[in-house]
Design a protein that fits this description.
Layout lengths: L1 H16 L3 H19 L3 H20 L11 H18 L4 H12 L2 H15 L4 H17 L6 H14 L11 H6 L18 H9 L4 H11 L4 H14 L10 H17 L17
Helix pairs in contact: 1-2, 1-11, 2-13, 3-4, 3-5, 4-5, 4-6, 4-12, 6-7, 6-12, 11-13, 12-13
Length: 286
């Protein structure tokens, strides 16, 4: 019962404070994805995501440009690939793993490289520690080789400082971040014309929801304990990327993360673990 109270409290607060119809649709899509993950083991959706991302990669390679196929931009596509890679490792969609690796290099997203490194490390460290370490280190190496000359870390520091300085107890409303930050008369250490997100999901949630973030934190803490290992792997990869980006607000990524949270909630509620198949990958208990 507690899980549904926390989920309902978060949903009601987010809907009540939504600053636009699109913001309300977004939070409703997250709620529906959570419910779907709770009631169904939807491995076929991860397989479908792998197919869609593979097709988009083909488009991005054939027609190179800033939109990265139909994804919008390379960073969006990179986070989609990283979460898809985590799903492939969790649900044994082996054919997608090399495709995701090629896609990550095409996107050149450092956030996605770090998410992929954590995915390989968690997935293989128990049974194949050498393989897990090598693949994780390769992702870290790719992260270091990616050249970003626009001062992205300085931008993030400025955005984080502005978010912290302008937090309120009631929050600014779900979906308000870009407009609220853009309206500030003084920018701190900012070279971007607009900040599409806080580049840290926790800060953005606190900025937009204020105290309304507490039910969500309770829900996540409840789900993490004794949860389905495969879904927990996906969620840890999301958490890693959320430290320096805003994957919860990236199309597809947020919904698949919410679906994994629902799967974790189901396994926690049933007081059992949904075991991985015998074979290559099994995540450690974290």
């Amino acid at each position: 019962m507690g899980i549904w109270i926390a989920a309902s409290a978060f949903l009601i607060w987010a809907l009540a404070t939504s600053t636009s119809p699109w913001a309300a649709i977004h939070v409703l899509s997250l709620a529906l994805a959570f419910g779907l993950g709770y009631w169904r083991q939807v491995t076929w959706l991860w397989q479908g995501l792998a197919v869609v991302l593979s097709l988009n990669l083909a488009v991005a390679i054939l027609f190179p440009g800033p939109s990265a196929g139909f994804a919008g931009n390379p960073n969006y596509f990179g986070t989609m690939l990283a979460i898809g890679l985590a799903g492939a490792l969790a649900y044994r969609i082996w054919w997608f793993i090399p495709i995701a690796g090629i896609g990550l290099w095409v996107c050149q997203s450092r956030t996605a490289f770090m998410g992929a490194a954590l995915a390989f490390f968690i997935a293989g460290i128990r049974k194949y520690p050498a393989t897990a370490m090598c693949t994780a280190l390769l992702c870290v190496l790719m992260f270091l080789l990616v050249e970003k000359g626009e001062g992205s870390m300085a931008q993030r520091l400025g955005i984080w400082q502005m978010a912290i300085n302008n937090m309120t107890l009631s929050g600014h409303g779900w979906g308000s971040f870009m407009g609220a930050i853009d309206a500030l008369p003084v920018k701190i250490n900012m070279t971007l014309l607009k900040a599409p997100g806080a580049y840290n999901d926790f800060l953005q949630l606190c900025f937009e929801l204020g105290l309304g973030v507490i039910p969500l934190l309770i829900l996540v803490a409840y789900c993490l304990e004794g949860a389905d290992d495969s879904a927990r792997l996906i969620f840890w990869v999301y958490l890693a990327m959320s430290l320096t980006y805003f994957p919860l607000w990236v199309p597809i990524v947020g919904q698949f993360v919410a679906m994994s949270l629902g799967r974790m909630a189901a396994s926690r509620f049933q007081q059992r673990k949904i075991q991985w198949p015998d074979g290559f990958l099994k995540s450690p208990t974290i």
